[in-house]
Amino acid sequence: MDAFSSSFLSSTYILAPSPPLATPPSHAHHRISAVRIEERPPTISTNPPNYKQNTKIPTPRKSSPPPRQSPSPPQQTFPATLFTALDNIVNTYIDPPSKPSVDPKFTLSDNFAPVDELPPTECEVIHGVLPPCLDGAYIRNGPNPQFLPRGPYHLFDGDGMLHALKISNGRATLCSRYVKTYKYLVEHATGSQVIPNVFSGFNGVTAAAARGAVTAARMITGQFNPTNGIGNANTSLAFFGNRLFALGESDLPYAIKISEDGEITTVGRHDFDGKLNMSMTAHPKIDPNTGEAFAFRYGPMPPYLTFFRFDSEGNKSQDVPIFSMQTPSFLHDFAISQKYAIFTEIQLGMNNPVDMIFNGGPPVGANPEKVPRIGIIPRYAKDESEMKWFDVPGFNLMHAINAWDEDGGDTVVMVAPNIMSVEHTMERMDLIHAVVEKVKIDVKTGIVSRFPLSSRNLDFAVVNSSYLGQKNRYVYAAVGDPMPKICGVVKLDVTVSDNDRRDCIVASRMFGPKCFGGEPFFVARDPKNPEAGEDDGYIVSYVHDENTGESRFIVMDAKSPDLEIVAAVKLPRRVPYGFHGLFVKQSELNNL
């Protein structure tokens, strides 16, 4: 979520709404954990979440991971000690956390608190049987700061940690490991934070000057080299070119491997034979038929958008700079059809670094006077000459779901959540409401039609990946109430809106009071069967019960009207809330 940082430094059970994460009442009690916490979960009640609406799952005997010895902190050099002391002065006296959105007492409360790494640890299947199609690994990425923040901290700033559930023959093993980015390794060796938090570290001219001076001194004395990357790789994962990548928008991808016993290993920063020398989106799109991956990068300096692709072997094409996007937009995601790549220029943009320093505030801000646009460009374009832009007032996309062509390519259809009150994206996520819309673009006439598919607050939505870039029927979306916590999952039938304008939700599963999950992911029951239905498969996700401190991995039947939970795995310790996940088949893991 932080493409700005690289360029800047180098130039779901029914839920009763809980107090918003960013602005709880002043009398509320907040819990925060340091990184080096106990491996054993908090005291667990004997009453587990009601995962089936009419069936109670018995609670198994408690278990905990194997005992571990915490490593001794490294001995700091004099320059490192000096710079750490200066950081403490800045964080304590010059720029202490001034807003709930960057105050660790809020942003790292409850299950947002970080955890330590966990070696491969066997889990207990406490309900049902894990289907054979889940043999492989479900991996979820998310922020997990390795050091307790000494100053302002935004949710997007944490070090990437992967939580991988390796499944084989009905048995499951959980492993949690940091992505060993250059940033992580430098700070781990130093024993403290070295590279500043971009989303929360530059609040006004005094704070920016102080942190900038310390950062420059660290570079001059050789503590870190920004050309080696400053990203967290904390956003998502992708599998293409026979490689598995952990992704964050501020850096190159990091190649990852998962062993037979479930161990996670960071192979290293991957530049595709020197052809990718700048950052890349955390949401590349992989064509299920060709194996090609389509991607882009964006930033605060022209060209603000650059489009490129990889063939099925992972060989990168030439960049296609898009100069017709004339202002820096926060372009987190995009979509592809069989003919086009579809981008959105929204009201959320990158603040000018000079204005940000002198006026304070986050690197990303909203411009209510800007008219959002959708741009389409042929997938195999060699330049931007065929790029077309269409004004779409009030349409602010953060995550795309899918897109396809109709009428021989004369019409482009995209399904995506439209972020209402986009000005709250960075500082008041609890006030965000996302409405899933179907957008139709007549390429010849330029007419854009929009139809809401549901009034619910929905985001982090997925489809059967075999239908990516092609016309599909079903969408599985996370229910925010409020975001960033996810209280359930719903299934939408997007064809319902073709006949009338009623709500398209056809199935749902709520997680229960104070139970929250993550982004759902669809796994086909028999991906090699061309006769299988689009929804013939399972929805998987991690779910955490804040009442008991217990986390589980659940498997839901995607065809059932209530998304029935057919299997559940008790995890040996809690899995913090995070961002995006991916399921990788065993056959694909074998080829890494």
From TrEMBL:
Alphabetized GO MF terms: carotenoid dioxygenase activity; metal ion binding
Cofactor binding note from Swiss-Prot or TrEMBL: Binds 1 Fe(2+) ion per subunit.
Residue stretches of biased makeup (Polar residues): 43-57
Keyword match Oxidoreductase: yes
Cofactor list: Fe(2+)
Bias-annotated ranges (Pro residues): 63-76
Residues where Fe cation binds: H283, H332, H399, H580
Keyword terms, alphabetized: Dioxygenase, Iron, Metal-binding, Oxidoreductase
Xref: PANTHER family: BETA-CAROTENE DIOXYGENASE (PTHR10543), CAROTENOID CLEAVAGE DIOXYGENASE 4, CHLOROPLASTIC-RELATED (PTHR10543:SF46)
Family indicated by similarity: Belongs to the carotenoid oxygenase family.
Protein name: Chloroplast carotenoid cleavage dioxygenases 4
Organism: Apium graveolens
